[in-house]
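Late entry, pyridoxal-5'-phosphate complex.
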Amino acid sequence: MTPTYADLNPSPRVLLGPGPSAVHPRVLRAMSTPILGYLDPEFFAIMDETQAMLRAVFQTHNEVTFPVSGTGSAGMETAIANFVETGDRVLVCINGFFGERLAEMASRYGANVERLEKAWGDVFTLDEIERAIGGKPIKLAAIVQAETSTGALQPMESIADVVHKNGGLLVMDCVTSLGGAAVKIDEWNVDIAYSGSQKCLGCPPGLAPFTAGPKAIERLQSRKSKVPNWYLDVSLLSKYWGKERAYHHTVSASLVFALREGLRIVLEEGLDARFARHRANAEQLWAGLESMDMTLHVPLGHRLPMLTTVRIPSYADDMKVRARLRDEYNIEIAGGFGPLKGQIWRIGLMGYSSRRENVTLLLAALREILGEKPR
Ligand SMILES: Cc1ncc(COP(=O)(O)O)c(C=O)c1O
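Prediction complete; structure with ligand written out below:
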């Protein structure tokens, strides 16, 4: 018998995890627009606009700024594959899951990886980074600005100076921060950065905004070996996203439409107003959680506004609470990774998910569920 399949009808989840976040309705509409071919002049104009808006959100003038096809990890791999050669000395700052992933990728591309490690939830001081470099030549240093696995926000001021002084390039992961907190590529002198469409930009997953500055491009042009990853080769991708418009691969028009609309919404709201909204909703969440005697994992001074980590009360069952939130209230939050597994919940208020009504709903649901347990 031929199997039959029901109409697609996913539950209307309130996405309050570490991403994906809710897609803005205007972005959903943009995605249902008929697509264009990847060499259509109309599509080129849309690409130009998308790149211009990306530069504004990254706060950069970098010519090489475009979305890479793929998720945040494709952005990460672009940053590593293009700027690392076999035997290069690479310092990776690891204070969470995504720092680990950077180290893993760098080692796969043949780097001589040095790990600077801190506890999950801590951030790095300038001094610690400088001591790890030790005044010796370095090719690349990589750091995560917003560690989604821990909820910590890394201060970025002056890190690039320390790396540049020793001949290196600085890679910054801003997958979770872009569109929700300040990402100042030019002011911070960050050489290479990447993000993801599915967090504070309010788009579905599938594109990784990427930017690289003049020093990075110079390094790329003087590589001794070919970039070992054809799909993510920045020189080839730049020929499509730059003036030549030479075919490289079939970019998803629907995802570019989505990103263009997501970025338009970011800029209409204004960067500062958007960051203030993320912060205000986070503060309301923090106050609500603390009023329920819960403890926040990261100190206020370096706490992410778009991803809160809260310690699971000793009387609560991690999996059961999250399953009830999902099944009874349609709310998604996440648990912890690695050393924080079973220790914390991760609550995202990103992009279109960062709304006051979502905070109120989650707090009310948690109060109901946790209130049933004897304290
Ligand atoms: C900080 C950070 N870096 C990288 C990634 C990887 O992105 P993706 O899962 O979209 O490939 C994530 C995903 O959550 C992230 O939070």
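The CA atoms of residues 121 and 150 lie 5 Å apart. Will revisit in the morning.
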